[in-house]
Amino acid sequence: MTTPGRYRHYKGNEYTVLGVVRHSESLDELVLYRQEYGGHGLWVRPKEMFSETVKVDGQDVPRFQFLGAEQTQQANLFANIPSSLPQELTETILSKPNIRIERIVSQGQSSPEGFWYDQVQSEFVVLLQGAARLRFEDGEVEMKPGSFIDIPAHKRHRVEWTSPDEQTIRLSIHSGVPMKSILVFLLLASTAIAADPKIQRDVAYVVPKNERQTLDVYSPSEGKDHPVIVWVHGGGWTKGSKNGMQQKPQAFAEKGFVFVPINYRFVPNVTVKEMTGDIAKAIRWVHDHAKEFGGDPNSIFVMGHSAGAHLAALVCTDDRYLKSEGLSLEIINGCVPIDVSVYDIPKRLKDGGSVSPETFKAVFGETEESHRDLSPAAHVAKGKNIPSFLILHVADRADTKAQSDWLAGKLVEAGVSAKVVAAEGKNHGTINSDLGLPDDKPTKELFEFLEGVLKKK
Q1: Contacts of residue 191, Cβ cutoff 8 Å, sequence gap at least 6
Q2: At residue 390, does pLDDT exceed 70?
């Protein structure tokens, strides 16, 4: 049975199923549904096709995921965003007779060549995250987080560019009358924060400055000696950015943490050893400058997702990297790697998994000696002051589960506190993008871990 209600297509857009109808000649059952974006067009699709599963990253997922019999209110404008965007995601979050509000998420997408919007309603656009450039017939407008623009009806425009390196999120308010900026602030009140964090962007942690060796600092608005989170982004060791942190900076700042996402160099331009060296250099900068932004140089936590999880775990177990910067593992209070399957690379290659051995060999080299040297598990030993670990992974990913349990076992054998948490209902993208949301279970586990470690200091 196909229940009427709200559904999300596996590519991200949402639809409302109005019911099941029959073809007048063949009597085949067809699902009638309305797109909740763009022109809100009506569509039909054979019922069997609507209900089938498709392969995404080697896993079976529903073509259309049922969300509920009634549309739920968007709790957070940064939630429920797919980690991969093969096409621009447009979602209507409010539709009334005289107003329509859309959340639009892009990553490198732009308007088709030669296409111009010419709308009958005015449009108020607010950019929440990322970067974009709008073109008008009389010029261009660059947009960054916090930028907004009121576009009158029938003013021709197009999206010339959106950042390919991060997700760009914008709120688009269509109305029959020109919008006032106060409306935006009222609409965003539910996601606004009591006190915005202080922000320093693109700070170089090496000299001379290199864009790939910079970091951002998000500090609580008041106070001092706040514990510091150093965040290492993912991207398969070949791409990624400190930008696009979704709600993480706000969530950590509200809990009294300084949040420091970092950039680092990539394979093949540098080796994984040099990449990990970048992480150590960033930690050294954080340690040396912590008091300048209200942080505690002796309360540092290192976290990362995907490839960033591997690098975080490696710098927190192989003490050579911090020693090369004149530091020891004693300054690291805790490590939180999130969903990666290469804590023990030789074991991972032997056991197999969803990523081909060739992919890993292109990153870690061809020799088993190199694989061992770049495996966090290989460096776990007693007496090294390795910090406590919280290891998060997607519950139904067999390879990350096996590697997480394996690393935790090695840590416990060496007398290091380690806990593994399997995140139910998550995939490799959402375990990261949902982190920091109020009702997110991995987030609750994370803050409990941080609180527990800090209480023991």
Answers
A1: 76, 77, 78
A2: yes
Spatial separation of the C-alpha atoms in residues 272 and 398, rounded to whole Å: 25
State how far the Cα of 235 lies from the Cα of 377, in Å rounded to an integer. 21
Rounded distance, CA 227 to CA 275, Å? 24
- Over range 211-227, report the average pLDDT: 94
Whole-angstrom Cα Rg for the chain: 24
In this structure, the answer to whether residues 228 and 306 fall within a common structural domain is yes
Mean local confidence (pLDDT), 438-450: 94
CATH number at residue 287: 3.40.50.1820
By residue count, the chain amounts to 457
**CATH number of the domain within which 180 lies:** 2.60.120.10
Whether residues 13 and 49 fall in one domain: yes
185 has a pLDDT exceeding 50: no
Task: Point out the least confidently predicted range of 30-34, 296-300, 312-316.
Answer: 30-34
Which amino acid belongs to residue 153?
A
Q: CA 306 to CA 270: how far, in whole Å?
A: 19
CB-hemisphere CA count at 13 Å for 165? Answer: 11
> What are the pLDDT digits (tens) for 399-410?
999 999 999 999
